[in-house]
């Protein structure tokens, strides 16, 4: 073990190097680009013994990843934003063919309008594609979760690919100290890739992913659903083993000052640290505030969330994507479903879109509203908590020449 | 693990549900006969997916994967990279897609594989429209041909796939036709012996989509070559080698009259096509003379 300095992308590359992929197919996209670059460097310098394929699109990157891993090697790729959207079709193939690819995704807003900056709209759009999803809150966690993701995804009862999601720029370009396992220790944990069930081998013939008739298709989807059920159990075991080996606790759900909390926020990703900072401030003032961070979004840890939040009367869920057309953001929807039938009041917040900072002020505002509700002084919240008051005046066409 | 319902003589099942008069099964049988059992197929949705099979049944005894319509070359390149990494330099990775999956939606991934010279054999069987979905026009549909999306005849010429391929400087590429199986086999053998990205473009007329009787496929394909509507050539080491010169270059009367898809054509359009075919052939001759 050694303390190394990595930014988020560097930590993702280090985890990939430690997992010894045989094929790498990567296409550059901001803010993921330095992953594609550094992987190329590592291969050129002989630090990773892999075929590096300089693909012409993310669609081809995922296609190659599927094809290569089906021959029996671990593969690596990474993407962000519209790159993930372009991959979408083939992400479904990876999941349905049970190819346990582990892919870092650097969270960046989806177009339109164009943005280079962070929100979760890209990975939230993939939440039902059949991939496990982990959301990191620190650079250390990118390395830790990615190493664990190989073990969870590749487990014979799971066989489901993983997205290891981390916030663009906030984490991808944030240089932090990372406690890094030695090559040997990491390899002893991750273990060599072993092909299971479906593979392309001329000595053991099968045709993969042909037309599946309706009389069998439901069952194929059910198998995937069981894979997710198993992933929840396997993740617990793998996190426990990781903690034992490397001393860092990982969990599907992190609780912070929740035991006696009267109000709590639910967060995901890099905003969580700021949330905890504000919880500390409020606690110093004698206010019983708490925070729950969802680290594993797929499979959704509904039971753990219910258990952690059951005694907290007022809860605010912060979504970093807009969930357009839905009653609330996607994270809030799931938290509400997990708490259905309980007496808690759950309020949805949407903010931090396209790199807008979710500041300590944002959390103070949110906690303030939740406390007002708890005190009976209000009964609603400002869902879009950081929207500018002049929102509806922007890009307004003052004169329509055609009228 | 694959178990055989009926032991096939080659790598293709004796009973397959391709349309009568379609020669795609002849392409598959010759392809797998030449390439051998140590071959992996990548097949997109389309007519060729009859060979991927349905549910637990496949029509071929070699392994394969059915990908998406546009990523056959990319999946094949990934498979080839996986084998290379494991020291497997013998398994042939073959993508076989129709014209829609190649010249339309699959052109980007094919272009990437050709530029990188990925070690795959890419075969486009060209029936000049989206036949499996019901005869919709593709960018390989020739001018004046009727399809369900070009009901008044296509207004523009088809893309010239082999020239696009040659512009990528691949080590080996060729055109072939179901009307000349010995030539096709020779080109498959050549392709098998070359490393890198190899491309075969095979004309495969479709009785349903082109509108002719099912027993006429070879005759129609032969007439396409006679008129220069289909030109046999090989591209190797940057050199173009033309096949036999068309007997009646530019004279498409007979070729068109054999098919219903050209029934609405007028003389002016026919003249335009004739000029195009002659000009294209003369251009290819110049390339071959370099």
Automatic annotation (TrEMBL), chain B:
It comes from the Bacteria. It holds the Pfam family TPP_enzyme_C. It comes from Mediterraneibacter hominis. Keywords: Oxidoreductase, Pyruvate. Gene3D superfamilies: 3.40.50.970. GO terms for molecular function: oxidoreductase activity; thiamine pyrophosphate binding. This is Pyruvate synthase subunit beta. Residues 48-202 form the Thiamine pyrophosphate enzyme TPP-binding domain. Signal peptide: none annotated.
